[in-house]
Amino acid sequence: MTGTPDVQPKISLRGVTKSFPDREGGGAFTALHDIDIDVASGEFVTIVGPSGCGKTTLLDLVGGLTEPTSGELRIDGRPITGPGLDRGIVFQQYALFPWRTAQGNVEFGLEAKGVGRRERARRAREVLSLVGLEAFADRYPHELSGGMKQRVAIARSLAYEPEVLLMDEPFAALDAQTREQLQVELRSIGQRLSTTVLFITHGIEEAIFLGQRVLIMTSRPGQIKESVAVDLGEVDTTTDVRSSPEFVAHRHRIWESLHDEVLRSTVLAGGPTGTEATR
Ligand SMILES: Nc1ncnc2c1ncn2[C@@H]1O[C@H](COP(=O)(O)OP(=O)(O)OP(=O)(O)O)[C@@H](O)[C@H]1O
């Protein structure tokens, strides 16, 4: 089990197993097995694991997009029974409405919540400015770069102030520079808004830079192998924090743990596969 035991966690998973029907045999294929996780309110938790270990499945379960085969998932002690406005989800792909401007896309979630027109516009401007896009509010998605589109997707999730932000490799499709810039922004947004964040990534460095805690998953069926608390002290984003001794030590420790799992999944799959997670 991972997390703080005596305070009610924001997100809590107990004995969560998820199986899918096996195409060939009519049996079941276990993607996740007996997962226990506690995430404290306001905590930023990153998850790394070999390709196919069930990270997206885990996030889908917390998002209420699928149901567990067994086990319990709770937010603030209440069982998760489906999607809800208490949880914002940001996927790898931008998933913006092409016929709406950046501002229109951000306002979408607020419309669903019944927020009035003026308040919608005000909040949309506010979060667009938070992600550095105030000057691009009137642009349509096709007029925006990949990084800008992903910023809009993040702004849209932040606009309705979800208590929990679920992010599935949100920066994977971006170039290295844009990714780093967005990491810095997300880190500071996370700290300012004290949103509880569950963030999936293939990148060890991204996991360490963003996470207050890194959860390492085993190869399939996915289980939580380790929970590593990250303390980088006060991060000065103008310096190369990734070169600091603390950062390098974390990277080495997590790389080793993850590397074993990637090797195991390679053997299970009968050949080289899924080594992305060793970056
Ligand atoms: N709807 C589904 N039906 C059947 N099998 C599924 C379904 N969704 C996921 N799986 C299987 O469950 C396993 C875990 O998938 P998942 O996408 O959660 O892994 P992941 O760790 O996010 O992978 P990656 O890192 O490559 O994105 C995979 O073997 C996948 O094929």
Would you kindly provide a brief summary of this structure?
By secondary structure, this protein is α/β, with parallel strands linked by helices. The chain has helices spanning 55-62, 102-112, 117-130, 146-159, 176-193, 204-210, 245-269; strands at residues 11-21, 28-39, 44-48, 70-75, 78-79, 87-90, 164-168, 196-200, 213-217, 224-229. It is globular and about 55 Å long.
Describe the structure.
The two termini are 27 Å apart. This protein folds into 2 domains: 11-86 and 164-278, P-loop containing nucleotide triphosphate hydrolases (Rossmann fold), CATH 3.40.50.300; 100-161, no CATH class. It has helices at residues 55-62, 102-112, 117-130, 146-159, 176-193, 204-210, 245-269, and strands at 11-21, 28-39, 44-48, 70-75, 78-79, 87-90, 164-168, 196-200, 213-217, 224-229. The protein contains 7 helices and 10 strands. The model is unreliable at 273-279 (pLDDT under 50). It is globular, with a radius of gyration of 19 Å. It has a 6-stranded mixed β-sheet, sandwiched between helices. Strands 2-1-4-5 form a 4-stranded antiparallel β-sheet, covered by helices on one side. Helix 6 packs across helix 7. The chain is α/β, with parallel strands linked by helices. Helices cover 35% and strands 22% of the residues. Residues 20, 31, 49, 51-57 line the site of adenosine-5'-triphosphate (ATP). GO terms for molecular function: ATP binding. Keywords: ATP-binding, Nucleotide-binding, Transport. InterPro entries: AAA+_ATPase (IPR003593), ABC_transporter-like_ATP-bd (IPR003439), ABC_transporter-like_CS (IPR017871), ABC_transporter_ATP-bind (IPR050166), P-loop_NTPase (IPR027417). Residues 11-244 form the ABC transporter domain. This is NitT/TauT family transport system ATP-binding protein.
